[in-house]
């Protein structure tokens, strides 16, 4: 499933985790530099590729190393399959995100992070609500089997504060505890998003959500909406 954007840029710093240690690379004008990006304040686009390797501990180590800069406008964080990442790590991440007041685009991939629960969703929602410059948000929680309707409600309470958001993608594919009740709360919390033009909602293989749940969705109060992708199959 496509998200709201591809986050490509001519200058992007990439941090990779190797054997629980963090290795930094900076890609500037197609030239790779094996250097720490710690003091590279020019880098407004930042990405972390930590598939299967992120833990609460090494994420905290990374965030405390000063890699987040207040001037950053776009981040792409991939935590795919990091089963050692829990609500504690998500709370730490959320504290770091609060400092990025200039952020315009954010992509977070928590696919198959099996130990994230509704508590972590609350932390994330609280951090996003203060990032009022955000224009594009792409959050992937596919196969996060501990997330329930309550977690989605806690997340969207933060998202509804983003009055200038133009693109939003929420992926909850195969989250078995999610029920149709969350669809009504989503519709309610989206009402404040007057600038929203593109919306992606993926609840594929969420067994407790049926096609009948469509009746609980309403997008009438989204005057700028031009593109809608909805999967309840």
Strand content: 15-25%
Gyration radius, rounded: 17 Å
CATH superfamily: Ribonuclease Inhibitor
State the domain count: 1
Helix content: 10-25%
Helix-strand sequence: EEEEHEHEHEHEHEE
| Mean pLDDT across residues | 81
Number of helices: 5
Query: How many strand elements?
Result: 10
- How is the biggest beta sheet arranged? 10 strands, mixed
Would you tell me the structural class of the helices and strands? Answer: alpha/beta
CATH class bucket: Alpha Beta
CATH fold-level name: Leucine-rich repeat, LRR (right-handed beta-alpha superhelix)
The coarse overall form would be: globular
Instruction: Give me the side-by-side strand order of the main sheet.
Output: 3-2-1-4-5-6-7-8-9-10
